[in-house]
Amino acid sequence: MSVFSLSTLRNLGGIFGILQLSFLLVLLLLLFKAVHFYLSRKWLLKTFQQFPSAPSHWLFGHNLKDEELQHLLTWVKKYPAACSQWLWGNKARILIYDPDYIKVILGRSDPKAPGIYNLLVPWIGYGLLLLNGQKWFQHRRMLTPAFHYDILKPYVGIMANSVNVMLNKLEQFVDQDSSVEILQYVSLMTLETIMKCAFSHHGNVQLDGNSSSYIKAIEDLNSLAFFRIRNAFYHNDTIYSLSSDGRLSHRACKLAHEHTDEVIKLRKAQLQDEGVLEKVKKKRRLDFLDILLFAKMENGSSLSDKDLRAEVDTFMFEGHDTTASGISWTLHALATHPEHQQRCREEVQGLLGDGTPISWDLLDQMPYTTMCIKEALRLYPPVPVVSRMLNTPVTFPDGRSLPKGVTVALSFYALHHNPDVWPNPQVFDPSRFAPDVSRHSHAFLPFSGGSRNCIGKQFAMNEMKVTVALTLLRFELLPDPSRIPVPMSRLVLRSKNGIHLRLKKLQ
Fold it and tell me: What local confidence, expressed as pLDDT, does residue 176 receive?
């Protein structure tokens, strides 16, 4: 046998050996994964014995798709206080929807569930929504002054101007047989408001047309992030980046970041003007972005560009999208309940009917309108669920307990539709929020609760009041019976088929 033949055989033998070793390693890895899967699932099944749930598939979980909220309404009646929900395989969580249970969790300092919220990092980074521990506390304390009433007062006029621009645009749909999908117009209006109030923007977002791509990017990211959380394979960054959803998410993130980067760049440029800079420095309280730009953390260093962009991305998204959802669902609720709509209109006309401009002081003089907004937020909470991962064991008031490491989902949608908390929960009844009616401190949580409640809740409520009041002064709202909205769970509550209204101009 030639030297060449011997060398070839040795090489083939070496390659075959490497393949055998590789196969053995893959086999061992698969075996390890199978054992880990079995043990994890066994542990969860034992842990969740106290929290029964509807039957689920051992691999695909409950697989609710877009019917989750409808299933929740059934579970709330069948499983008191809480139940388990299987997402897939060995991934599960405990859903809680009892005010006493929720009070216990919100009174603790458990971190946001990393397996869920970490998937949002490429989009919004580590801002207030995703931060935990001391850094979250520092950022929260730093940004709280941006929502002092001295800051919020002049925002009411800015909100009113943005709402009137939106209403002028909606005039084209008056008295038509066809309806208008309201969320797209409300979203542009809330984006313009947040940019002018919190980010010192001077442009006209609703009329220039350049912000529609940002709105579409946020809409896409809202759905894509939700689907990624629910897909076991998409939790792997490499697999997700190669998928069509991953590529779409990357493009949407890029568009969203370009928008926020431009906002930061413009404000930095404005502050280069000594006159503007001196005027800002003399202000008793700073707007949101100016606080970030001037901020000094406790260690004496400025916020990094990464931290700055994360807070802007977070508040740009949360400050307009959740409020747009709340406003749109409120207008829908009033359209389908004309008697309540008319009572709100009469209240508003009594304050603004003679042309009086809406102001901070008048917002507290709309008790019935406020009751209707709160009842709409009960039926349609903008953020349907938030999640925590237990960092220590917990025992609930009824004696049931959970160990460290379990993910607990606080379902505000289920809480707000819990018949043990809200009699006839599907009925729109603003009297639930009459001043003399008492309720559990954690029965109504459209802005979450505890130390991590929504920092901009007063801003959002003011904007909702301004929008509802000015809209009812100009239009009668009518539903579209052929397009009844179907609530759909996403990061922010959506309708499966949009929110369509018909508009009738008031004389």
Answer: 79
pLDDT, residue 299, reads 55
d(CA 68, CA 77): 15
Question: Strands 475-479, 500-505: parallel, antiparallel or unpaired by DSSP?
Answer: antiparallel
How many Cβ atoms are within 10 Å of 57's Cβ, its own excluded? 11
Residues 61-505, CATH architecture: Orthogonal Bundle (1.10)
The span from the CA of 353 to the CA of 228, in Å, is 49
Cα separation, 477 vs 484, whole angstroms: 14
What CA–CA distance (Å, rounded) separates 429 from 442? 19
User: Do residues 167 and 327 lie in contact, with contact meaning Cβ atoms separated by under 8 Å?
Assistant: no
Q: Which amino acid is at 137?
A: F
Query: Which two structure tokens, joined as six digits, stand for 291?
Result: 């606080």
Extract the residue ranges of the chain whose pLDDT is less than 50.
none
Q: What's the confidence (pLDDT) of residue 24?
A: 80
DSSP 338-393: HHHHHHHHHHHHHHHTTSPPP-HHHHTT-HHHHHHHHHHHHHS-SS-EEEEE-SS-
Q: Which residues are annotated as a binding site?
A: 454
- For 169-301, list the strands marked E by DSSP: 180-181
pLDDT of residue 189: 97
Q: Please, which contacts does 177-182 make with residues 24 or more away whose CB atoms are closer than 8 Å? A: 177/502, 178/502, 179/480, 179/483, 179/500, 179/501, 179/502, 180/500, 180/501, 180/502, 180/503, 181/498, 181/499, 181/500, 182/328, 182/331, 182/332, 182/499, 182/500, 182/501
- The whole-angstrom distance between residue 376's C-alpha and the CA centroid of its chain comes to 17
Q: What share of the chain is helix, strand, coil (3-state, %, to 5)?
A: 60, 10, 30
Do 459 and 116 contact (CB within 8 A), yes or no?
A: no
Residue list, annotated binding site for heme: 454
Domain ranges of the chain: 61-505
